[in-house]
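Issue: ligand-bound run for 1-deoxynojirimycin - logging full I/O for the record.

Environment: standard queue, default settings, no custom constraints.

Inputs:
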Amino acid sequence: MKKILIILLSIISVSCSYNNSISLESPNNEIKLNFELVDGVPTYSVNNKNKKVINLSKMGLLFNNKIDFSKNLTLSETKSRSFNNSWKPLYGEEEIISNNYNELIVSLNNDKYQMDIFFRVYNDGIAFKYVIPEQGGLNSYDIIDEMTEFNLSSKDSALWVPAFSYRRYEFLYANSSVDDISKKYYSKNVEDISYDTLGIDAAHTPLTIKKDNDLYISIHEANLVDYSSMTLKPNGNGKLEVELYPWSDGIKVKSTNGINSPWRTIQIANNSSELLNSNIILNLNDDPDENEDFSWVKPGKYMGVWWEMIGTNESTWWPSKNHGANNSKVMNYIDFASKHGFDGLLVEGWNKGWYPQWCCSGNGIPFIFTETVDDFNIELLSNYGKEKNISLVGHHETGGQIQNYENQLEDAFKLYNKYGIKNIKTGYVNDVSKNIKRIDEKGNIHKEWHHGQYMVNHFQKVIEMAAKYKLNIITHEPIKDTGLRRKYPNYISREGAKGQEFNGFWTNGVNHATDLPFTRMLSGPMDYTPGIFQLNNFRYDSPDSKIIDKGAIVPSTLAKELALYVVYYSPMQMAADLPKHYEKHLDAFEFIKNVPVDWSERVILNSSMSEYVTIARKDKNSNNWYVGGITDEKERNFVIDFSFLDNDKEYKMTIYSDTYNTHWKDNPMEYEIKSKAVTSEDNTNIYLAPGGGFAFEIKEITK
Ligand code: NOJ
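Outputs:
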């Protein structure tokens, strides 16, 4: 990561109306944050021009040794500065990221101790974090509550998934008043989770809110390290309160050396497209340590011996006559992936420990990550791949058995190193609430939440160990993305929402795909695994019966599957379907082969939250542009204006679109491909079928 402009630091003036109230503005003066100590209670509020974003909201932390940093505080010092630089991520959606903010640090004291609150105000939102420096007399910093509030209005509506529930972040989105965030509401309107009685009513972040005053905001966190994950609990009258996932003993965060909390972030946008255009989360993370070299991290595209287990159901992860990960099949996939210019091939079910009942309670036979099953020869296959420029993508399904994985972690990574593997997909399927086994020093077993500090620290351990062995990690059932890929570029992608796989064994319905850009995708890249071409009649009842399940459909269109490579950003992007399905549509497959995974510019061309979105991206390594547009169940006609193209260039555009006969339910695989010349002066009409989409490849004509 390179600093490319001179950092501009200056002391800025902040306005203090009286001693205990201080306000801070964004560099463009549109967003205004006000900190105020009200009768000893720290509070903040936020305005965007003349619109209210956050009403007066309390802040603070409460510790188990009765040290209370939420009331009876005095203001001892304030500091402020402004900061403006740009930096270049190793890979990303934009080549140059501007980081421009004003900062205020307030130091607060109770009768004995000090807490600092850092505030930053950007042009696209605000952030704050709590810092408790190590200080004499304090030897435990165990947090029992974080008092942060986000005081909104009951008229503000949220797009949310339930926290404290069995399937982590893998839920469809509910849309309700912020006051209605509850398992009861969710069970009545989306999916029955009423039996899941552990834990409280709360939503995960990023939480997207459409405010009554037409602003769009997203509440999330940045730089979640050695802390517990934040959820948001409604408290009536439009108020949301932070609720941290507790350890099994009820403590929220354990520390012996001070507290440096994650940033609490509020992205603020005037419309849904602006919401998709923010770098606030990455800006609040750090560059890699100076002595760390991550130049070995390379974005890429991969295929996988995967959909045939999870989607078409013709193969098994475990040894059987239908075992997917067998030498000859893997070699065939390598041949296909190599012929079409891919970088990697994921193979699942290669190691020992898989058996039909492996899933999903955390009690299965522990996986062995250093031993292969008989019909998978890792040496043979990695050498075969090497000859064909394909490196195997490793797979570690842990079943949520953390101790078992950590015990083998380094040996497993060494094995992958030996065979030239560069990327590992990890998995943590354990579909029961508060069911991650932690074994303490005395051998006692405790059950932890998937998103508490224990797991946050586990994911951190994995990523640091992976960096040591020059391995990239793509996590399924992960902790949410809070921008750590800036400091650890090898944390290259993750799932963290209902992805394509649910369309394989269940269904996401037709409207989920247009929720994701406005929710999950605001946190970072997603391993959604797009590119399913056989959208119906694809799934067998069982690997043995080979009878087609007529009811199984992927609620999409073939053209929309192409669009997802542009709409859903991921530096490691999968072509998830089987070679035999791509063989039937090689003309459309051309788009997947050509679409880049590393970008220099992002332009949101149109959007309406949860209904449709069109994004244009410029390839980092050429002057070519790619456009993807997707719609929900409604058909749409767009006019795409090409003024984002360079105005001194001419381009040849290939259009991959639905036809007027295409429909996600009845006729999903009908598409057309056309070409035409375009310049920045042009525009074009494009039709999106119900549940459909389109993709453009716009290549510079070089003379
Ligand atoms: C769930 C993951 O999301 C999926 O991709 C994987 O194939 C299975 N777990 C098995 O590990």
